[in-house]
Design brief:
The protein is α+β, with helices and mostly antiparallel strands. The protein has two domains: 119 residues, 2-Layer Sandwich (Phosphorylase Kinase, domain 1); 274 residues, Aminoglycoside 3'-phosphotransferase, Chain: A, domain 2 (Alpha-Beta Complex). The protein is 49% helix and 13% strand.
């Protein structure tokens, strides 16, 4: 049986035919796809396929990513599946137009809006950041994290001042609705939910906290010199490692916003990810230094310690308050395990992380005060909650002192 007959039987023939047509037009040469390998399991929200180019051209293979929804309609602007798919598409296409060396994401080739797929570069053999973090070798994990920090710094420096290009791609791809995520509105809603939970805990919220809450919100909504393209979800499984290079994938939450939304992920324990543990403090500082060294090439304001540190504390406060608003109410009712850690352990760990940073830099005293009171109250309510552990790669390296 030929490769294409196998693809016909597996149901991939329609998408392969459409991908051949759009790739042939984009590359200016005939493309014939086959030897298709699914890279995702059934039931996932995307279908990802690796296909070889049987016509012998270069590149020799491609990745096809198709939205997996029963009733896909590109005009349905209310559909989360449609919105996230187009955000992913426009992020991949946008970053392919940005000249970073090395590139920060797989190259975007083409897509078909009506059929809901796009075609990307095949990165070949790789691993995600999950593997070194959950492994037992601290040096490898630290190198991978520093590579990620450098990648994010280069990405942010290169996309400063490029918002008009991004917005144009959004309009071209999805004219019926904007794709820019309403992070400000979401933050206000989660802050409201947090304050309701605090009332039930009898943790008092005063006027000074509300003023600082507005300060944090204003930083996110008006990033000033830090206004750049952010991935929005740079979690370990969204980072592919090939040799000494890191690539970002999956731009479903990508948008223009405050650069440090991405850059604080390590310090704030990867707040949107199942794979969340702690990193050694010294390594977090090295990651932020590596990131900042690249960011200043496009954002000279980040050289000023006062400017950078103020932004760092405020964005960490954003992640703390955002995730408390997201999870605290449910965690008060019961604990649950999400990925490799419990929700209660995550919340306690982020409270500690924010307090350590804000205390060292003496900023946001009202948010600090509330975090201290909440940490005390939750510690009394959740005495059985274990501390959020270090990632296994660093927990097994105690002899070197890096795990402290």
């Amino acid at each position: 049986m030929s490769s294409r007959e196998t693809d016909n039987q597996s149901g991939f023939a329609p998408i392969l035919t459409a991908a051949e047509q759009t790739l042939s037009k984009t590359l200016g040469r005939p493309v014939r796809l086959g030897e298709t390998t699914p890279l995702t399991e059934k039931g996932r929200r995307n279908v990802v396929l690796r296909c070889r180019d049987l016509s012998g051209g270069s590149p020799a293979s491609f990745i096809i990513k198709q939205v997996a929804t029963e009733h896909y309609d590109p005009r349905d602007t209310a559909s989360w599946d449609v919105r996230r798919f187009f955000s992913d598409w426009v992020g991949a296409e946008f970053l392919s137009t940005i000249p970073t060396v090395p590139r920060s994401s797989p190259r975007f080739y083409a897509g078909d809006r009506s059929l809901g797929f796009f075609v990307l570069e095949d990165l070949g053999p790789h691993r995600s950041l999950v593997e070194p973090l959950l492994g037992e070798e601290a040096t490898s994990a630290a190198t991978a994290l520093l590579t990620l920090a450098t990648c994010l710094g280069k990405l942010h420096a290169a996309t400063l001042g490029q918002s008009a290009r991004f917005e144009s791609l959004c309009r071209d791809l999805h004219p019926e609705a904007g794709l820019l995520a309403p992070s400000g509105a979401e933050f206000h809603e989660r802050a409201r939910r947090l304050q309701a939970a605090l009332e039930r805990l009898e943790v008092r919220v005063d006027a000074s906290f509300r003023r600082e809450l507005e300060t944090v919100s204003g930083t996110i909504e008006r990033p000033g010199p830090f206004f750049t393209y952010v991935h929005g979800d740079p979690c370990p499984d969204n980072i592919f490692l090939t040799g000494e290079q890191a690539y970002l994938i999956d731009f479903e939450f990508g948008r223009f916003g405050h650069a440090l939304i991405d850059a604080t992920y390590g310090r704030m324990m990867f707040p949107t990810c199942w794979c969340a543990n702690r990193l050694p403090g010294a390594l977090i500082s090295r990651m932020e230094s590596a990131y900042r060294a690249e960011l200043v090439k496009g954002c000279p304001e980040a050289q000023d310690d006062r400017v950078f540190e103020t932004a760092l504390v405020r964005v960490c406060a954003f992640w703390l308050l955002n995730t408390l608003g997201w999870h605290l109410d449910g965690a008060l009712r019961e604990d649950r395990t999400w990925g490799i850690a419990t929700v209660r352990s995550r919340l306690l760990g982020r409270l500690e992380a924010f307090l350590a940073l804000a205390g060292a830099l003496t900023q946001l005293p009202a948010v600090q005060g509330l975090a201290e009171r909440l940490l005390e109250v939750l510690g009394e309510r959740w005495p059985e909650a274990p501390p959020l552990p270090l990632y296994p790669a660093f927990a097994t390296d105690r002899a070197s002192g890096q795990s402290r």
